[in-house]
C-alpha cells in the first residue's frame, strides 16, 4: 500500500470503469476512492462489529495533509469506545483554512498566500484547535497581544473570521468569536511623492538597474507591488498590460503607451519570462526591491493624485487603478473600454514626465 501524499493523489489516474480504492499504509482506515470523474477521501473502521465509513471530502478541495489529519482525529474519536458512533465535529482551524483557500472563486494567489501567512505566523498555536474551542476571550486576548501593530492585529482576526464563517456553512458552529473584538483604528499612510525631481534623482541613484525600472514602472502604471513583481512578458502587449488575476478576484487590462515601452525596454535582454527577474529568488522574479524613502504603495498613491490633479475624473482614475466601483451602475453597466481609458493614461504619463523636469 502507498502513502497517500499530495503528489501521489494528484498523479493517480481516474478510473476507466468502477471505483478504485487506495488505502494509506501509515494511517489505518484512510482511503481514497477514485472514480471516473472524482477522487474522494473516506475514513473507514470497524466499530462494535460494524463497519463505519465517514466521508472526509473531495480531492483536491480537501488536500492530502488535511485528509490525513482528519483521519487521525476520527481514529481517536472512534477508539474512545466500542460501538460509539463517530460524530464529525468542528474542523480544526488548519483544515477549515485549507477548505476556505480551495474555493474556486476565491481571490488571487497573493490573497491566499496572505491568509496562510497570517494564520501560520500570528495564529500558529490555534491551527490544530477545533474551531468551536477557540473562544471569545482567546480571540480578544490575541488581538490585544498584537496591539503594537494594529493592522496586523486586525488582518489576522479578520482572516480568521472569514475562515470561521465559511466553515459555518457546513458545520454547526456558534457565532464567530470575533464579535467580541473591538477593532483598532487603522490610519492610512496617505503620503505621496511631492517632489518628482527629487524622486528622479533617488531612482537614478539606485545601484540595481532592474530595481530602478521597477519603481519607474510603478509610478507610471499605478500597479500594486505584487502585480508588478509577478508580471510576465507574455502579458505585456502593444496597447495593454493583461493581469490574469488581481486582488479583487478578476482579470484586468491596463492601457499602456510608448512611455511604458521605453521604461521596460532596458529589461528585455534579462529574461524571456519575468519583467523583473532575479537569479537569487526561488520564484525567478524579485520579491524585495531595494528600499527607497517612498514605498511601492506611495508610488500608486502618487499616480492617482497626479491623475486627479491633471483633471481626470475620479471614476476614470479608479478604473485605471482597478478599484471596484461602489455603485451598481459602475459595477454592472458602465464598463469603459480600453480605448476610452487610453487618453487618460496618456495624460497621466505626460504630467508625470513634466513634473520631473520642473
Distance linking N and C termini: 73 Å
**Could you say which overall geometry the principal axes of the C-alpha atoms support?**
elongated
Strand runs, count = 6
Mean pLDDT: 87
Broad structural category:
alpha+beta
What count of helical segments does DSSP give?
14
Order of adjacent strands in the largest pleated sheet: 1-2-3-4
Features of the shown structure:
358 residues, alpha+beta, four-stranded antiparallel beta sheet, 6 strands, 10% strand
Write the layout of secondary structure elements.
Elements: H1 6-11, E1 20-23, E2 30-34, E3 39-47, E4 50-59, H2 64-78, H3 93-101, H4 109-122, H5 136-145, H6 150-167, H7 196-205, H8 209-221, H9 225-229, E5 240-243, E6 252-255, H10 258-264, H11 296-309, H12 314-320, H13 328-333, H14 338-355
Antiparallel strand pairs: 1-2, 2-3, 3-4, 5-6
Helix pairs in contact: 3-6, 4-6, 5-6, 8-10, 8-11
Give your account of this protein's structure.
The protein is an alpha+beta fold and 358 residues long. It has helices spanning 6-11, 64-78, 93-101, 109-122, 136-145, 150-167, 196-205, 209-221, 225-229, 258-264, 296-309, 314-320, 328-333, 338-355; strands spanning 20-23, 30-34, 39-47, 50-59, 240-243, 252-255. A 4-stranded antiparallel β-sheet has the order 1-2-3-4, with helices on one face. Strand 2 and strand 3 (39-47) form a beta hairpin. The longest helix is centred in the middle third of the chain and has 18 residues, at 150-167.
